[in-house]
Design goal:
Helix content: over 70%
Shape: globular
Radius of gyration: 20 Å
Structural class: mainly alpha
Number of strands: 0
Largest sheet: none
Number of helices: 12
Order of helices and strands: HHHHHHHHHHHH
Length: 233
């Protein structure tokens, strides 16, 4: 029964998950192509100078990453768009309990002799597995595209670094997935569980960026998962 619930949830969210998966894979492939182009033009230093000053302060030591092929490629694992998309996709998947209530499916489910916790257990397993699978897809895209188009002379991004960045990305996504699941267990509409988690993710990310150059924001930043995300430290 638990497996059937998970299959139904994945089927219901397959449009969103497919779109997110394609976005992440294409973005990583595009970064590899950009890194190859910068390598051929010997313009890594110029790319670093194009980054705005407040972004440079936010990135800190990570700015050195823009001076190499591997650094440009690894940027995809802590790019603002990627981090927020991953967090929102996880929050969306975790909001299934509220979607069951909204669609009236929960009444049919609880009419059967099943444990009530399976509804939440199903979503817990999905919010844990979906970002991990998406991160694995990103890594596959990175290594595949690098193997296909990178010149032999470039140094590939190190495997430990990519694995560490991917792990931090997944952990951040779990934070907002868990928040969405918590809200969804008491909500009657999917939007009531998903929307607050998505808005919170965007707000805390902005606080994290502001904290690099605005002292008052640093007080709030310590409560943000992004403060502990090592991709930008």
């Amino acid at each position: 029964m638990l497996a059937a619930l998970m299959v139904r949830s994945v089927t219901r969210a397959r449009g969103v998950l497919t779109g997110v998966a394609m976005l992440l894979a294409v973005f990583q492939a595009a970064l590899v192509l950009q890194a190859v182009s910068l390598h051929e033009q010997q313009s890594f230093e110029a790319a670093g100078r194009m980054v705005p000053g407040f972004i440079q302060r936010w990135l800190g030591d990570t700015m050195f990453a823009f001076g190499s092929f591997g650094g440009i490629v690894s940027f995809g694992y802590f790019h603002p768009v990627i981090v927020l998309v991953m967090s929102m996709a996880t929050a969306f998947v975790a909001s299934d309990p509220a979607a069951d209530v909204e669609e009236g499916y929960v009444d049919l489910l609880l009419a059967r002799p099943v444990a009530r916790h399976w509804i939440v257990t199903r979503s817990t397993l999905l919010l844990a597995g979906c970002p991990a699978i998406l991160a694995a897809l990103m890594m596959t895209s990175t290594w595949t595209m690098t193997a296909l188009v990178a010149p032999p002379s470039v140094q590939w991004p190190s495997l430990p670094m990519i694995l560490t960045l991917s792990a931090h990305l997944v952990l951040v996504a779990w934070c907002f997935g868990a928040f969405s699941l918590m809200l969804s267990t008491g909500a009657r509409r999917r939007a009531s569980g998903f929307a607050p988690a998505a808005i919170t993710a965007v707000a805390l990310y902005l606080v994290n960026v502001l904290a690099a150059s605005w002292a008052p924001a640093r007080v709030l930043d310590t409560a943000s998962p992004f403060h502990y995300y090592q991709g930008t430290k």
